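Figure caption, in words: inputs first, then the predicted bound structure.
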Amino acid sequence: MKTLNKAAQSNITPAQAYELLRHGNERFVDNLRLHRNLLEQVNDTRDGQWPMAAIVSCMDSRTSAELIFDQGLGDIFSIRLAGAVISDNVLGSLEYACKVAGSKFIVVLGHSKCGAIKGACDMVQMGNLTGLLNKITPAVFAEKTITENRTSSNPAFVDAVTHLHTERSVQAILEQSHILREMILNGEVGIIGAMYDVETGVVTFQEETLVIGSEKFNTTPEAATV
Ligand SMILES: [Zn+2]
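Bound structure (zinc ion present):
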């Protein structure tokens, strides 16, 4: 597997970057990871990096973006915080990834059985964690479909809040970063929310959150060619 360089990165469209990530997770799930000489990739990237995508995900030890999308050194930016929360720092990192370093696609990746989401569901308060969980709380209140046992002991509630939190994070990026919004709306960059299942390794993309260009991206992912 070749390491990305400037030319390869500039030839990848947002739809193709999405496709590369989808295929990477399929390889991961099928245990068919590409062979990579990581030491060689260290050498390939010694003078710079040209990652095709940026993944915002949780710090959870089971959700390493490079592993679950079967990517190598220099392929993706990985921004990881408990609960995959969006903040000014995350927005700044994404703006760097896309505007300065040329990445073409953003994935906001939630995951099942997320401890941060569970903490927010239970209104946990503890030191600096309180402020972090407060960034998830709006999704807890916005979740209206489950009326009984709205706590972390109800997996359906935790899943519903996680789904909603991810959707709201995609929206927050579009609303709070004029740089990224402009790049997404003019088709230079794409964005989508997704969910990682810690029991199966499968990433399920939330197609309804996909935006590339000024219109919602309507073609099926299979239509993209790489
Ligand atoms: Zn988590």
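The chain has ten helices and five strands.
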